[in-house]
Amino acid sequence: MKSILFSILVLTFTLASCQSKKPEGGFLLKGKIDGADGKTYVVATFDGKQLIGLDTATVENGTVEFSGVLDYPQQVYIIEEGQMRPVMQIFAENTDMSFEGSVDSLYAAEVKGSKSQDLITAYNKDMEKYQKQSQELGQKYQAAKAAGDEKTAEDIYNQYMEMNDKRLAETEAFIAANPASPVSLFLVQSVFMREDFDKLNNAFSKLDTTLSVIPGYKEIQDYIDVVGKTQIGKTAPDFTVPTIDGKEITLSSLKGKYVLLDFWASWCKPCIGEIPYMQKAYQNYKDKGFEILSVSVDRDENAWKKAVADNNMTWLQGHDTEDISHSLYGVMSIPTTLLLDKDGVIIAKNLRGTALEDKLKELMK
Asked: Which CATH number is 13-113 given?
């Protein structure tokens, strides 16, 4: 469901020369594009860091052809030369493919000839209902928050989570029905990597091991190995980070207290939205053996310090300068929080809103 976002600041092209015909064992992609005569396009893959150009071609008399060789079926992106944002993406294979569309709406062009594209198209069609529900709930949630109606906002959030669980269950069933398709691997990457560990692990387990030749398979496997060490019942990996006053703090030094480990950033609106709940919990339980260690993933040190002051975050503040959030904890989205017991064992994760204080009340009764 999530698309790759391309940043003009960090991505570059490695351009290939224009292919004249379909290479042996490769693909040929023929297109008809209304209103694009004279425009030059690049077809490229994405290796996780940069776009890799496979072919370039100029539209003549409304038609264009691209060719190249793919190591495996995968997403390819069509970009107008000189631009960075794709106008179209295709789940391509080493076969004959075609598409037709208008220069202003290539993203909606129908692609023929790729079984993988047929699969992702069918999946996306099934997911349209959830996209619509998500937009509607999002608008209602923002309206409730703007009106200060926290009870309604919480109810809407719970509705969203129920809807999301249905979406994930349907996606997992799709993966299970197509275990050897690279599309299924793509869906594990794009849909489940930001979900909780059990959901990700279950979806990944549905994949056929023949997909292990694709780099993304090992990346997910490695990620699961890291996140597996931060599940409830595991001792939180130890680390040391610089503090806001120029000193250092080590997580294990806080043993003997219940600790909320909070990964956040100044630019993260959901993170900022959780601060009032953390403030209340801290005020009520800091003298009863509770501590908070917020670890910012901000790159801008000044932005981090300003956000701490502006939001009156009076508890312990660390700065993740060594990427421990990802390398030790596998954090893929923020806010991510872990509640540790007095021995440093993880006893809860991602307690949102009033759930944090409810848990502390239960622990300290």
From this structure: 2.60.40.10
